[in-house]
Amino acid sequence: MYSIREDVRLQGELRKEEYREMKKLLLRTMLSALLFLFPVPAMAGVDVGVSISLPPLIVFSAPPAMIVIPGTYVYVVPDTDVDIFFYDGWWWRPWEGRWYRSRHYDSGWGYYQRVPSFYSGIPRNWRNNYRERRWEGRPWNFQPIPHQQVERNWSSWKKNRHWEKQQTWGVQGLKPRTRSKQSSHEVQPKSQARPQHRETAPRQSKPAQAKHGKGQGKLDKGKGKPDRGEGDGSGGHKDRR
Fold it and tell me: Does residue 115 lie within any of the structural domains?
């Protein structure tokens, strides 16, 4: 009886050992397959491309105040040694030739693969203008804005052209170029074609009144057409306003 139990125990241990060896063999096979499919140089190249260093955190003694760059809806923290912008709901900063963005001004920076579109409209000497309180040779009466207000209102301010209405970004005599282009474009549609239609119709009806008295009924109907055209024209002016 004892020998039978001993044999069963030995057989169980042998099966466990065989199971361990099979697991090791399976792991070696999987590792060899991975090395065959992804050689070491290729894997090393992928690792280098992904591991992009992040910029150091900026410590603020107090929540930063901001200003808006005249002629834009880009906000910047002026009293720091590094450039920190806010645009369209994101905080932006350049560092070592790369761009990073975050939803917070003091943490959470992530790599951005290209230069943000707003940056081309930012003058490189904006800091000098800030110190001298002048913009394009004009007095610049900027007002610091708490960053909480910017984060809360940036979208509505941009939609409603807030800074154009606030004394044109605080710069005396600054003309908002985008607004002038839009207004000149909106005045043009169909305003020149309709008066010509109203002028030509009465000229055709005058000779007919002098020669043919019987055709006045038809001419009266013809006169109704310019009246409807003027109605359309006034509707068009309402749309433009």
Answer: yes
In a domain, 23, yes or no: yes
- Kindly report the pTM of this predicted structure: 0.54
* pLDDT score at 72: 94
Strands 90-95 and 85-87: antiparallel
Beta strands (DSSP E) in the chain are 65-68, 75-76, 85-87, 90-95, 98-102, 110-112, 134-135, 138-139, 145-146
Instruction: State whether 218 and 117 are in the same domain.
Output: no
Domain coverage including residue 21: 2-50
Q: What is the pLDDT of residue 123?
A: 94
Residue 106's closest CA among 88, 79, 84, 87? 84
| Same-domain status, 144 and 109 | yes
Q: Are residues 87 and 166 in the same domain?
A: yes
Domain count, the chain: 3
Q: Is residue 98 part of a domain?
A: yes
Residues 6+ positions from 170 with CB-CB distance below 8 Å = 70, 140, 141, 142, 143
The angle at the Cα of 174, spanning 169 to 175, to the nearest 5 degrees, equals 110
Are the CB atoms for 164 and 71 separated by under 8 Å?
A: no
Domain boundary among 141, 175, 209: 175
pLDDT of res. 32: 72
On the 0-12 / 13-18 / 19+ scale of CB atoms within 10 A, 121 is: exposed
Contacts of 148 (CB under 8 A, 6+ apart): 63
| pLDDT at residue 24 in the model | 72
Q: What are phi and psi of 138, to 5 degrees?
A: -110, 155
- Looking at the structure, do residues 7 and 103 belong to the same domain, yes or no? no
Query: Can you list the residues of the chain whose pLDDT is less than 50?
Result: 40, 42-49, 179-241
- What DSSP element (H or E) covers 241? none
